[in-house]
Amino acid sequence: MSGTEAAPRVGDAVDLAIDKAVYRGRGLGRVAGRVVFVPRSYPGDRVRARVTAVHAGYLEASLVEVLEPTASRREATCPQGPECPGCAYQEVVYEEQLRLKEAVLRESLARAGAGWDGPIAVHPSPERGWRVRATVHASAGEHGLRLGFRREGSHRILDFGGCQQMSEPMNAVVPQLREALGRRRGLAASLRGIDLLESPDAGQRVAALATTLRPAEAPQLAGIAGQVPGLAGLGVLCHPHRLQWLHGAPHVEARVAGLVLRAHVESFFQANRFLLEPLVATVTELVPAGSGRILDLYAGVGLFSLPLAARVGGEVVAVEQPGTASEDARENARRNRLDAVRVRAEDVASALAAIPVEPGERVVLDPPRSGAGAGVVDAIAGRSPRAVVYVSCDPPTLGRDLARFAAAGYRPDTVHLFDLFPDTFHLETVVRLHR
């Protein structure tokens, strides 16, 4: 189709060359002068795609056929097949995945007005068995209980056939749970999903069953734990949101930077077992030494706070919302005898307004996927910290926040890319900012 032809419409099949990768695992090409985004296509591919949506400046399309594959393509080995949305890059050799992610990061920052032309240190990961936490969805029907991941672009659930991101012991737990829960047909109908958390050494696993049960009904599921030998702990999330623990403990333990940290099944904890140590080491190394306090914002269970107190020294204020993660952080500081760590269980914006400014402050910032946002960025910059180390899992929101930091005079001097999520389009970035 040439540039003089009419613009494609929904349902049209189009042939196009893929020029580059963009965020969320899509390839970008052009047809009739219009940008087209095609999932599971890669630079160097020539593909046939079907238009699924038409927007003012671009088209969306689904992949129909790879007409001419790029040299970096490979056969996917996932037992779930291409219907599972979890591994957008599994059909690309790993070295190329890293190159694509670096290119996507640079483009995302540039589009946000925070372009970075300097070097990016890339930290690879083993592709298999890296995941320490996972969520499987559930549905019960005439054919019994189904556990698995949702099909791409659908709420339908694929029967779990194993996941290469998960360890062998975690993979084994899912069919064991399906069998045990399947024998309780009345209760299985209340199941909506299962959250799994495994210790980085793969020695412990705990599960929380998300259900529509009332708290008084949850104890009926207590016996299931004994039917799943791979589980050290089992709880039930009841309606309304209330976790009732039935067996064992709701935590697993991780050894990081010579410290022992516990993480609750409902607490945020980094997903990649292989890159925990390098990630923590990099963040602590990037925080400059000094006597001023360190603010660890969105601190979770204290993954950075505790090593910072042990290695960098000085007071560390860990700010995390009230809940299981802040409770874990307090317990972790106590167990590791790190009195310099002070945990504030409150909203980050409120904490920044309440904590007096101290000369020489250093800030570690690890917000959720939505980023820190204008209010938090402005509050941090307004404190004139000596340095900010920003840990991000989303390049577009990172770029947005870096552009706002730049307007306040803070610019990057170091950028790291951690491939915490191999075979997926996700990536983790660590950026140090100085005024």
Shape category: globular
Arrangement of strands in the largest sheet: 6-20-21-19-18-15-16-17
H/E element order: EEEEEHEEEHHEEEEEEHEHEHEHEHEHEE
Into which percentage range does the β-strand content fall? 25-35%
Question: What does this protein look like?
Answer:
- The chain has 435 residues and is α/β, with parallel strands linked by helices.
- It has helices at residues 94-111, 168-182, 185-188, 276-286, 305-311, 324-335, 348-354, 374-382, 395-407; strands at residues 13-22, 26-31, 34-39, 46-54, 58-68, 121-123, 133-141, 144-148, 191-198, 205-211, 233-238, 242-247, 251-256, 259-264, 294-297, 316-320, 341-345, 362-365, 387-392, 411-418, 428-434.
- An eight-stranded mixed sheet has the order 6-20-21-19-18-15-16-17, sandwiched between helices. A six-stranded mixed sheet has the order 8-7-9-10-11-12. The chain has a five-stranded mixed β-barrel with strand order 1-2-3-5-4.
- Helix 1 (94-111) runs parallel beside helix 9 (395-407) and helix 7 runs parallel beside helix 8.
- The model has no long low-confidence stretch (mean pLDDT 94).
Please sum up the structure shown.
By secondary structure, the chain is α/β, with parallel strands linked by helices.
